[in-house]
Design a protein that fits this description.
Number of helices: 2
Order of helices and strands: HEEEEEEEEEEEEEHEEEEEEEEE
Oligomer: single chain
Helix content: under 10%
Strand content: over 45%
C-alpha cells in the first residue's frame, strides 16, 4: 500500500538525518538540541524539537524532551511527546523515570504515559518494575478517572535465560479499557541457538490478545530465524471502543528470515512470511542485499525487492539506497522506490518515490542536514516535500 511505503520513507529520512555522527569533546556534561522541520500538506509546516542532556561525571541523571511543532491552522501549535528525567544507578541496580514517556514493559503493549516508572534489579537476577500515571492526551486534554498502572516481575535463570510476568490495567472515564496479563521468555541454551516467546491474555474478554515465538540460530556468517505470531484485533483495541463489539478476525503469520554475510562487506537478507486473515491467505516476501563501501560501513549500497501478497492492497516494489561519505564533514544519501499495485483503482499503475539527503558539519558542535523527497501517491499525482535538521551539541557525547 503506497501510503504505508511513503510514510515509512519519511521515517527513514528522519532516521537518516538523526543518525549522522556528531563531534565529541572531553567535557563531562552533554547537552544536545535538534530542530527538525518537515513540509507535507495539509499540515505544513510541522516539525520536532529534541533536547537531550546527561552528566558523564556521576552518571546518575539524564533528561530528554521531544516536542511536536505544527502550524496555527492545524489542531494546535505544539505538543510535548516526551519530557522526562531519568535517575539511574551506574551499577544498574535501580532506575526511576519521571515525566512523559513511552513505556515498553515485557510483553505488554507500548504505553504513552504521564507518570513514573521504577525498576529494581537484585544481584540474584530478580528484577521488578512498577509504573503508573495518566495516558497522554493531545494538548493535555485529560479526562476524569483516566489512569493506567501495572508491573512486571522477572527472574534470570543462569546466564542465558530469563522469564517475566507482567500486568496492566488501564481505565477510561473510570471504565476498564485494558485488563491484561503477559509473559515473556528468552533463552540461549547453547551458543548457536536463541529462543524467545511472549503472550498477552485479555482478562476482560478472556482469550489471547497476542502471542509470538521465534527460534534463531547463529552459524558463523549465517543467521536463520523462524517466527510465528497471532493477533486478535478486537482485544488490541480498548474495551470501551465501539469497534471492540464488531467481532474478531484473528491474524496469523508464520515466516522465516535469514541474514547471510556472504562476503566481509556484503549482507543478504531474504524474508518469507505467510499471512492468514479470516481465511484470506497471502504471501509476503522480501530480498535485500547491502554492500558496505568501506570497512566501517560509512558508505553503503542497498538493493531491495518486495512482494506484499496479503491484505486488500497487494503490491510489488523495488528500492535502491546509496549512502556516501563525501568528505570528513559532508555526507549524502539517496533512495529510490517504485511500487506497482495489483489493483491501481484508477490511481496510476506505478507509484515512484525518491529522496536525496545531505549532511554538513560547518564547525565543531554544529550539524546541518536536509532532505528532499518527490513522489506520486494514491492521493496526489505529484508531491514534493522537504525535511531539514539543525543540531547543536555542547560537551561529550
Amino acid at each position: 500500500m503506497r501510503r504505508v511505503v511513503v510514510g515509512s520513507s519519511v521515517a527513514s529520512a528522519i532516521a537518516t538525518l538523526l543518525a549522522l555522527e556528531g563531534i565529541a569533546s572531553s567535557d563531562p556534561y552533554r547537552l544536545r538540541i535538534d530542530a527538525i522541520g518537515y513540509t507535507q500538506a495539509p499540515q505544513s509546516p510541522v516539525g520536532l524539537v529534541v533536547l537531550q542532556g546527561d552528566d558523564k561525571a556521576n552518571q546518575w541523571v539524564d533528561a530528554e524532551a521531544l516536542t511536536w511543532m505544527g502550524n496555527s491552522s492545524f489542531n494546535g501549535n505544539a505538543d510535548v511527546l516526551t519530557a522526562l528525567v531519568r535517575l539511574h544507578d551506574p551499577r544498574n541496580y535501580g532506575e526511576l523515570r519521571l515525566g512523559r514517556q513511552i513505556l515498553t514493559v515485557g510483553a505488554l503493549r507500548p504505553l504513552h504515559l504521564d507518570g513514573a516508572d521504577a525498576r529494581l534489579r537484585a544481584p540474584t537476577g530478580t528484577s521488578f518494575e512498577a509504573f503508573g500515571g495518566v495516558p497522554v492526551q493531545p494538548q493535555f486534554g485529560y479526562h476524569a478517572w483516566d489512569w493506567a498502572t501495572g508491573a512486571r516481575a522477572a527472574q534470570s535463570i543462569g546466564r542465558d535465560t530469563s522469564l517475566g510476568f507482567s500486568y496492566l490495567q488501564q481505565r477510561s472515564d473510570g471504565q476498564l479499557a485494558y485488563d491484561e496479563a503477559g509473559f515473556d521468555f528468552a533463552s540461549s541454551p547453547v551458543p548457536v541457538f536463541d529462543l524467545a516467546a511472549h503472550g498477552v491474555y485479555d482478562l476482560i474478554d478472556p482469550g489471547l490478545a497476542e502471542a509470538g515465538i521465534s527460534v534463531a540460530g547463529r552459524f558463523g556468517e549465517l543467521r536463520p530465524e523462524i517466527y510465528a505470531t497471532q493477533r486478535s484485533p478486537s482485544r488490541l483495541i480498548p474495551a470501551t471502543s465501539l469497534f471492540s463489539a464488531l467481532g474478531d478476525t484473528p491474524a496469523e503469520v508464520v515466516g522465516t528470515a535469514v541474514k547471510w554475510r556472504m562476503f566481509p562487506r556484503l549482507d543478504l537478507l531474504p524474508t518469507l512470511a505467510v499471512r492468514d486473515t479470516a481465511g484470506d491467505v497471502g504471501l509476503d516476501a522480501t530480498v535485500k542485499a547491502t554492500l558496505r563501501l568501506d570497512d566501517r560501513g560509512g558508505g553503503a549500497l542497498s538493493v531491495e525487492g518486495r512482494r506484499q501478497g496479503s491484505g486488500p492492497d497487494r503490491w510489488s516494489g523495488a528500492r535502491v539506497a546509496v549512502r556516501v561519505p563525501v568528505a570528513a564533514r559532508v555526507g549524502c544519501s539517496t533512495e529510490l522506490e517504485l511500487v506497482a499495485p495489483d489493483d491501481p483503482r484508477g490511481r496510476g499503475s506505478l507509484w515512484p518515490w525518491g529522496l536525496v539527503a545531505i549532511r554538513w558539519v560547518p564547525v565543531e558542535h554544529w550539524e546541518v542536514a536536509a532532505a528532499m523527497e518527490a513522489a506520486s501517491t494514491p492521493t496526489a499525482t505529484r508531491e514534493v516535500n522537504g525535511l531539514a535538521r539543525i543540531g547543536w551539541s555542547w560537551g561529550a557525547r
